[in-house]
Amino acid sequence: MRMFDLIEKKKQNLVLTDAEIQYIIAGYMSGEIEDYQMSAFLMACWFHKLTGEECFALTRAMATSGDMMDLREVAGLKADKHSTGGVGDKITLILLPIMASLGIKMAKSSGKGLGYTGGTIDKLQSIGGLEVQLSRQQFIDILNEAGMVISSQSANIAPADKKIYALRDVTALVDDSALIASSIMSKKLASGADMIVLDVKCGNGAFMKEFDAAKSLAQLMVQIGKDAKKQTVAVITDMNVPLGRAVGNAIEIKEALSCLKGNMPSDIKEVVFALGIQILLMGRKAENANEAAKMMTEEVESLRAYNRFCTFVAMQGGDVSQLEDTSRLPKSAIEKHIFAQESGYVSVCDCGLVGKAALAAGAGREKKESDIDYGAGIYLEKTYGDAVQKGKSLAVVYASTEAKAEEAATLLQKSFQISKQEPPKRKMIKEILN
Predict the structure, then answer these.
(1) Known active-site residue 337
(2) Is 154 tagged catalytic?
(3) Using one digit for the tens of pLDDT, what is the confidence trace for 275-291?
């Protein structure tokens, strides 16, 4: 085989075989195939689109380019959860301990946030001492004991994906559903879980702004999971408004803890329960959605899920006293409120602008190497659908400097629109695909 011929074949919109795609990935990882050749190939894939078979072959080739996690030492059913990213998305921190408390082992590798999309690892690292760089044995031991584990992504999990994504990022090839699906699912297949649940965000605060694009991505990922003989389900959820009221790192830990104690905002509850119900049905822990929901409610009301989260934090070296007294979590010194300029109802709380405001406050990173302020963030005192009075606080910004607080507050003010009429109720769950 020659890479030149395979580029030409895809350029002519012909279907590549599994062996040809394996050759491309192996050659790229060995250095035999150059960046400029891979770029040309990816561009041909962008224009002519990968078939379902090609998409699965690419996913499998990237998954097997590095370590494949073997979870056979872990008793019981193992599940993995992935979100395509959003603003205020602390669902992992709430869902995993509930599932772990119900006997589903939740094994998750997460990344750091980039831009205004927050990363679960950043949120967890706002807890003093919590370790996310885990050896394979530590990962297994914590999963067995706590029933859940969250680690940073290993450099050798789907390394071909990391290398190819970096190339896509600088050649304007990020926005292709098949390439996105292959990227995400290569890491999920390498994780070793029996079941995969995907939270595909849709809206102005998500990567996929339009429903049709989100559905196309969800369908591709579910099919890849099925082709790999993994039970897989995707839930398409709304991301036009931030999830819950907290956006940041330590501030989202506080809200997640409050949720695990039973104080769950309706939007968070809908997403957590939709995902959890699917896991319990796939794992045959419940016969129907109502039974699954009742089981989840009992784990929260009994505080068993909260205690499970505390056990997980302790096993990963985190300071559990910060969970018991959340005032000990990081909090930036400067507080700046924004105020309603008229009375009525919040008809828009623009997710993208709120995310950019949190980034400006210091809660996110513009580049991978940037530092973040764990104590920075935003608390929405009012959100979509809430009644407001002129002159009353809509939200508060937490930042380390007045300049950052001012920049964030300016963006945050623009994110709100007030109307005289109460807006229609949000539909959090747009579709479930399995």
Answers:
(1) no
(2) no
(3) 999 999 999 999 999 99
